[in-house]
Each structure stands twice: as structure tokens, then as C-alpha cells.
């Protein structure tokens, strides 16, 4: 038996100083951001996840976006080296939190990867060639993952921050995609749902079991998901969106053996 862990981290009081690439800086309501983040954690819990929440860090504006600092495969966790230098100190606490669950390795300089660029569909891992993830980082991920039977494919992406701004998995063999930012052909034979053209940022949904946690701000695309038979759990994440975050980026989701069957989880840290 397995269960699902969702690792999260509290909203930093410094979130107003977050990295921004495509959006203008606008005031972020901290109390509202915290409330939205709590609702997000509650949605994860109600969908069956055990939520492991790390404390907020007032020195790390973007640290709520934990997805970017770890890629957790079934066999091993890879702590990333984020493309934005301001985000690199986020990795230490997340690496420590993963030690009870996985052997932990790390992307080394000069490699960079943001977890937001990493889309895993079964044993296929796609990594966006974005402003945040470079060739060395992608190659290091490939070297870590191939012994476990994963392929790692670099995918050109443009117009957005990360690969998962442009495409996410919303069903066992279904992706939600903004075709203006990434070419659907790169992902093989999967069912494709396109975002509403009026909602370019709408391709980011978080699949938990058979439900998709999804922002309230994209009703046109939500209707397309529902018309395709997908169960959608709608959340208002307006304040996280002002920091260029979405719903995948606020958690690292992975399976673990349920406690009664836990056998001596390996707890070591190594670097490449
Ligand atoms: C950044 O620019 O790094 C943050 N302000 C937003 C990161 C969002 N991460 C994600 O969607 N995976």
C-alpha cells in the first residue's frame, strides 16, 4: 500500500519581492495569499494527500513555490539548482525534508533546473529549455534518471516561465496545453486539451488521483476540462498568480509506502 505526500512551504512574508519575468509587479495581499495557500493545502488533504508543510522563510520571497527546488521520482529525489540565483538557498530545507522518503541527490553547478520545467508522464520526463533550465542541468537529470528506466527529453518552450506554464498532465493519458508556447508533438501519443485562446496562462493544473486542482481565473479552459470528463477542484489563487506561480508550483507530490509497510527508508544525501 502506498499513500501520497504533498510537500508544501508557507508563504514568505517577503513574497512581494519575488522574481518576475513576464508579469509587472503589483501589490500582493499577504494575508489573502496565506489564506489561499491554506485552502490549497486543504484541497490536497481532502484529495487524500498527507500534507507535509515546511515553515515560511522571511528571507526567501519565492520559497512557497517548492516545486521548483525538487524533482521526486519513485526511486530518488533530485534537489535542483534553480535558474534564478535568489532561489538557490531554498533548496537546503527541502532537501532535508525529503531525506526520510528518498535517497537525495542534487544538481551541481553549472547546471540549473527549475522543477516547474519538469513534466513526468510515466517513465518519460520532459524538461523545458526555458530561461531557468540549462543543458548541463538537463544532462545531469538524465544521468540520474536513466538507471531507473526514465527517458529525459529536452523540449523547447517560449513565451512563458516554465514548461509546466505551457503543459501539464490532467489525466492518465491527457495533457492540458497552450499550443502557442509548446509543441504538442513533443509529447507523443497523448490526448490533448487546448487552453481557451483567451486564457494563455491556463495550462497549469495539478492532477491528484483523478481530480485536477485548478485556478478559478480560467473559466473557459475549466469548461473544456469538464467537457472532457475531468473532475476539477477550483481554487482562487490570485495572489500566487501575481508572483507568477500557479497550482503545480506550490507542492512536490510523491508516493511513499504506507507506514506499516515502511522498510528502513534510505536516508543519505549525495551530490553529483
Ligand atoms: C519565480 O519567478 O521563480 C517565481 N516568482 C514563480 C515560480 C513559479 N513556479 C512554478 O510555476 N513552478
Taking the alpha carbons of the first and last residues, their distance comes to: 32 Å
Uncertain segments: 264-272
Encode the helix/strand succession as letters.
EHEEEHEEEHEHEEEEEHEHE
Number of strands: 15
- Give the rounded overall mean pLDDT: 95
Helix share bin: 10-25%
Quaternary structure of the protein: single chain
Radius of gyration over all CA atoms, rounded: 17 Å
User: What is the 3D shape?
Assistant: globular
Q: What ligand species are in this complex?
A: citrulline
Helix/strand class: alpha/beta
Quickly count the helices. 6
Q: What's the arrangement of strands in the largest beta sheet?
A: 2-1-15
Range of strand content: 25-35%
Most strands sheet? 3 strands, mixed
Key features of this structure:
single chain; 272 residues; alpha/beta; 3-stranded mixed beta sheet; 15 strands; 27% strand; binds citrulline
Amino acid at each position: 500500500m502506498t499513500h501520497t505526500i504533498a510537500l508544501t512551504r508557507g508563504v514568505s512574508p517577503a513574497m512581494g519581492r519575488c522574481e518576475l519575468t513576464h508579469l509587472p509587479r503589483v501589490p500582493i495581499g499577504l494575508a489573502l495569499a496565506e489564506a489561499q495557500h491554506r485552502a490549497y493545502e486543504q484541497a490536497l488533504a481532502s484529495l487524500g494527500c498527507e500534507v507535509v508543510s515546511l515553515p515560511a522563510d522571511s528571507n526567501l520571497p519565492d520559497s512557497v513555490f517548492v516545486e521548483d527546488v525538487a524533482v521526486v521520482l519513485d526511486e530518488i529525489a533530485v534537489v535542483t539548482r534553480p535558474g534564478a540565483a535568489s532561489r538557490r538557498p531554498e533548496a537546503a530545507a527541502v532537501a532535508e525534508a525529503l531525506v526520510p522518503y528518498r535517497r537525495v541527490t542534487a544538481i551541481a553547478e553549472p547546471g540549473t533546473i527549475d522543477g516547474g520545467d519538469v513534466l513526468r508522464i510515466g517513465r518519460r520526463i520532459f524538461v523545458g529549455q526555458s530561461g531557468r533550465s540549462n543543458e548541463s542541468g538537463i544532462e545531469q537529470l538524465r544521468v540520474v534518471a536513466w538507471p531507473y528506466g526514465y527517458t529525459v527529453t529536452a523540449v523547447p518552450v517560449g513565451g512563458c516561465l516554465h514548461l509546466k506554464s505551457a503543459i501539464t498532465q490532467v489525466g492518465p493519458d491527457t495533457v492540458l496545453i497552450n499550443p502557442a508556447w509548446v509543441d504538442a508533438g513533443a509529447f507523443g501519443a497523448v490526448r490533448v486539451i487546448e487552453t481557451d485562446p483567451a486564457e494563455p496562462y491556463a495550462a497549469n493544473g495539478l492532477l491528484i488521483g483523478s481530480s485536477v486542482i485548478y485556478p478559478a481565473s480560467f473559466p473557459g479552459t475549466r469548461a473544456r476540462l469538464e467537457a472532457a470528463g475531468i473532475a476539477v477542484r477550483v481554487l482562487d489563487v490570485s495572489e500566487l498568480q501575481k508572483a507568477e506561480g500557479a497550482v503545480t508550483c506550490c507542492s512536490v507530490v510523491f508516493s511513499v509506502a504506507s507506514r506499516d509497510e515502511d522498510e528502513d527508508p534510505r536516508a543519505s544525501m549525495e551530490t553529483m
